[in-house]
Write a structure and sequence with these properties.
The protein has helices at about 5-15, 55-60, 65-70, 85-90, 120-125, 140-145, 160-165, 205-215, 235-240, 245-250; strands at about 40, 50-55, 105, 105-110, 190-195, 205. The protein is mostly helical and about 270 residues long.
Length: about 270
């Protein structure tokens, strides 16, 4: 990598480590098991419950992103879905799977919400989700789960793409009773995007990788307007603020600090 590229990458890393261009306050880098964690507290405190702790790492190992964010209908922004216990009871949102009936890995997924909470056992079930600040045993241990999977330097420390390619995880792409089976579309070829900074490696964008996990609907048209290359214009500043690629690559997918995952074409 030449001097100009090194300087540019250093500036990008410096910027991505800040919470905004104005504050200059460095974000705390989450631990691998914390990366992608979402705290949901739209209504919990008002109901005398702890906020919900949602772990993306275990859910993304079971289902592709599009199942939850397209078929089930979760918003891409944390807190924007306004999930209620009544929604879950009726089989929406979390209740689409967490109904005591849906089978995953050969066992039923525990029921999320019920209007009948009469015993200590019922209360403990509530705490499986409403666990923020509580010591609640999880059915899945992150370190045991991640141990056999290929490693990466950032994010969860897991190379999710390779794990899926090797068959170590097999995320489902549909949910019975919710998803509509559709014919697969022809996947576009990979293409290069030229960075604005001279000397930086080109970005290689793979439609196949993204359609395997996201489908088309997750990105188009809400995140990227239209389907023609070059329609959406964005910068690294935009991405670091959660726009365009940053809708996923600042929260759940591998983070912006892993520059060479995108800037992968040799100069």
């Amino acid at each position: 990598m030449n001097k100009a590229a090194f300087i540019a990458m250093s500036l990008i890393l410096l910027f991505c480590g800040q919470s905004s261009g104005q504050t200059g306050i460095k974000k705390k880098r989450p631990l691998p098991y914390e990366y992608g964690r979402v705290i949901i507290n739209n209504y919990s405190n008002n109901s005398d419950l702890s906020p919900v702790v949602f772990e993306h790492w275990i859910h993304r190992s079971k289902f592709t992103c599009r199942v939850c964010h397209v078929d089930v209908g979760f918003a891409m922004k944390a807190g924007a879905t306004n999930i209620t216990a009544l929604d879950n009871e009726r089989g929406y949102y979390c209740g689409a799977c967490h109904n005591g009936k849906t089978m995953v890995d050969g066992r039923p997924v525990f029921q999320a919400c019920s209007n009948k909470v009469t015993t200590a056992q019922d209360a403990r079930r509530c705490e499986r989700c409403h666990s923020y600040g509580l010591k609640v045993a999880s059915a899945y241990d992150f370190f045991q789960f991640s141990q056999p999977l290929p490693k990466e330097r950032f994010g969860n420390g897991i190379d999710w793409e390779q794990a899926e390619q090797l068959g170590l995880i097999k995320p489902g792409n549909s949910l019975e009773g919710v998803s509509i089976q559709k014919n697969a579309l022809a996947v576009q070829k990979d293409f290069a995007l030229n960075p604005k900074v001279e000397g930086m490696p080109d970005i290689i964008f793979s439609h196949k990788k993204h359609t395997d996990w996201n489908g088309c609907e997750l990105c188009h048209p809400d995140i990227f307007m239209g389907v023609k290359r070059g329609t959406t214009h964005y910068t690294m500043v935009d991405i670091s603020q959660g726009k365009a690629c940053g809708a996923c690559h600042t929260t759940v997918a591998f983070p912006l600090t892993d520059c060479q995952r995108c800037h992968s074409k040799p100069v």
